[in-house]
Amino acid sequence: MAGFAAGLAVGLIKAACKKKNQRQVSKPQVVVLVRCPPEQIEKAASILWTNAAMGVKSLS
Question: Does the predicted model carry a pTM greater than 0.70?
Answer without folding.
Answer: no
